[in-house]
Design brief:
The chain is an all-beta fold. It is built from 1 helix and 24 strands. It has an 8-stranded antiparallel β-sheet with strand order 3-4-5-10-16-12-13-14, with helices on one face.
Length: 325
Amino acid sequence: MKKIFTLLASALMASASWASVVTLDLNSPLYPDVLEYNENGIWTGCYNDADYTWLQFGDNHGAFLLSHLIDGEGASWGGYYWDGFCPAIGGDITDYGLPGANGTWTVNYGGCMAGGGCVINADGSVTADPDQPYLVAYYSSWAMEGPSNQVMFINQDGNMTFTPVGVYVCNHPWPYYGCVHGDGMARAFQEGDYFELIAHGVTADRSETTVSINLIEFVDGELKALNDWTYFDLSGLGEVQSVYFTLNSTDTGAYGMNTASYFCMDKFQVKRTHTSVEDVNADKAVAGMRYVNLQGMTSDVPFDGVNIVVTTYTDGTTSTAKVMK
């Protein structure tokens, strides 16, 4: 893997193995440490390929790593391209894709058919909130350095193996309206057509398992679409070191899918397992975090190379991170 990742590692007390579920919280960014959005609800750093090959979100329980531009610096063609995941907000459900004219989608791709970020309520019900962020995912079959929509999770003890539990998904407006009436590239769906999201689990020995869900399908004369946040069970993937997503459509030509290759995602859940009774530093406030590279330089943000993280807590104690390749 080209990029080197670091994660604050708490001091551990060896004991019996235990597991708990951790949910991706897009309100807890680590890298970048602040998310800002433009007037269209799209993260302002989406076309910055110099810094954000991967995005990181998390806390003392661990970090989620989300691919953003898997081919790295320079791969955005001067700020005109990205793949992977891009944070967005607002839940725009506008149809910009009138038949034969889909150009406005290129600046209005931050929408979400659910109408906003996924909120899991205390009673277990799920609603959408336009003030909460979500992920717009763009799938590219042309990425060179690996799958374009990858998710990894690193435990606070440096363990990269995890068990996916599930994730909430819904349709992005571009492929949805394209399946309804066409968009100049895609055709309207007909009986038997479907638009499928496939999750691939990759194990330590590089073997794969898959599970899938149809985002859109035309069945018995009716177009059925997941336009609300819908739970996608990932438990069948088993214990993995990464998960990546691909899309498949029956509207496919010589150059790949005609259906726009977008979907929306939120609240990715994993089960972590490690040998610790408690996270010793879990209740300590973090006073500061510094990154140190092999040349001894320090920075508030990761270097593009091997890093060690030194975290200082308000009680004066420190911890150092493991280096992950």
